[in-house]
Amino acid sequence: MLLYGLLVMLFDHMQCVWTQLEGRHLMGGSMSKITSVTKLAMEIHIKARSSPYQRTTDVKRFPVPDEKVPWNVDFPEYKPVDYTAPSVQKGPVWADIDVRTADASQQPIWNKLDNGVNRVSHMGPYKIVDKCPRNPIGRTGMIGRGLLGRWGPNHAADPIVTRWKRNISGEVVNGEGGRPILQAIVVQRRDNGEWALPGGMVDPGEVVTMAVRREFGEEALNMLDATPEQVKEIKKHINSLFEHGVEIYRGYVDDPRNTDNAWMETIAMNFHDDKGDSVAKFKLHAGDDAVGVKWMDLSHSLQLFASHVDFLQHTAKRLNANW
Hints:
Blueprint: H1 2-26, E1 81-84, H2 86-89, E2 113-114, E3 117-118, E4 128-129, E5 132-133, E6 142-146, E7 152-164, E8 182-188, E9 195-196, E10 200-201, H3 207-216, H4 228-242, E11 246-252, E12 262-273, E13 293-297, H5 308-318
Parallel strand pairs: 1-6, 7-12
Antiparallel strand pairs: 2-3, 4-5, 7-8, 7-10, 8-9, 8-13, 11-12
């Protein structure tokens, strides 16, 4: 029941930090002093070429071999599948119109802040080809937007909440290599059953809070049963944890929802409870809709959604933890 309050406040804080950082970035200012960006190499994407496409059984991408991913490599036989999910075509508030059929007055302002929508990529300026943004990493075997609402970059924030694994006596547990074992909060996604960081979209208005509700659904609404004293305690520990937030990564995400024209980008921040006396002591509860929530031991054998393993690996490296 405490998980919802913890994560909502975490995401609201990340929304604030993200907005401040992006504002400085777009205005040419310096980055926050508390952040530390790790550059992850992204030569080609793998999951962004996977088939069948997410939440479908019959939508398959045009096959793209590794050597044909870069746009500067000729691929005359390339015929990507055109797919935009019905849920996106219905035109919800979080989705763009189809820029391919829109007139000039309806075209987005690419590579800039566009009426509150951030169309700036962490990867730098992207090209516009036939009215559509071009994926900065390369071909995916699909055009359109798939499940993504925005043409071009779709921005997210991924909190990496960590603690040290401890035994019943409260002592930190070491791995085979003698380094301490790090644990992180992960959730089991409802759409594909994969374990992932509890991320959410970052866009205009209250999208982040909406994303948290979408990610965790009904299982988190038990917060309504929390007493004012419990809520106060959560805020106290979360505020303490926020003082030590460190940016791990910002950039492109190898996400299975990506297309040639729409892709995921994120800012991943680590909030580490070093002493185990903050969020580490809260018990996580999955709800009746079978969404899993747990502390997961970090190691090289992890299999997680999108690029989340890469983020956790660099978090473990930063904290000199077992991997």
